[in-house]
Amino acid sequence: MGKGRLEAFSDGVIAIIITIMVLELKVPDGHSFASLVPLAPVLLSYVLSFVYVGIYWNNHHHMLSTIHRVSGGVLWANLHLLFWLSLFPFATAWMGENHFAASPTAVYGVVLLMAALAYWILQQTLVAVDGPGSALARAIGSDWKGKLSPVLYLSGIALTFWQAWAAQLTYALGALLWLIPDRRIESVVKG
């Protein structure tokens, strides 16, 4: 089976996720910049989630550029990832509307953790289909970012019940870690 439909479906779902997140943003009651202040948690939650969804879309695109075919297992692993990504709008809205309270911030961390695990499962399933000598397998290498991310998310979840702001910083650090361009796949595909 070719990968075109998988890519198109994933792109569509991710576009809908971003659309749902932006539709959750409410217009402020006033016309001054001061009227934006109460919305700061909602806006900050949206920005963080937009960055994360963008990171997943970007990395998903790069990962799929290395493969030549997909299997039924790949389709299910991809759906598993999309399921967790589809919970971003809910977790984002709950966290922002409740001004980063502990429980919504912990749930946000669980969604981050599960999306990271689902991405890893998809990555491993793709390697199994294309083989251990595939371009993707070579590009992944030691995958220190992929190993560090779940640790950050687990730390953030734990920190939530101590200081929710510390969890937010941990989640932001995870996003910053992935914002630094990852040239592993590009270097393997070009080379």
Automatic annotation (TrEMBL):
Principal subcellular localization:
membrane
The topology of this chain with respect to the membrane is:
Multi-pass membrane protein
Q: Name the domain of life this protein comes from.
A: Bacteria
Q: Which UniProt keywords apply?
A: Ion channel, Ion transport, Membrane, Potassium, Potassium channel, Potassium transport, Transmembrane, Transmembrane helix, Transport
Catalytic activity reads: K(+)(in) = K(+)(out)
Q: Where in the cell is it found?
A: Membrane
InterPro entries reported for this sequence:
TMEM175-like (IPR010617)
- Which Pfam families does this UniProt record tie to the protein? TMEM175 (PF06736)
Provide the GO MF annotations for this entry.
Answer: potassium channel activity; proton channel activity
> Any stretches that span the bilayer, and where are they?
6-23, 35-55, 75-94, 106-122, 151-180
Q: Which GO terms describe its cellular component?
A: membrane
Protein family according to the UniProt entry: Belongs to the TMEM175 family.
Protein's recorded name: DUF1211 domain-containing protein
Q: What is the lineage of its organism?
A: Bacteria, Pseudomonadati, Pseudomonadota, Gammaproteobacteria, Lysobacterales
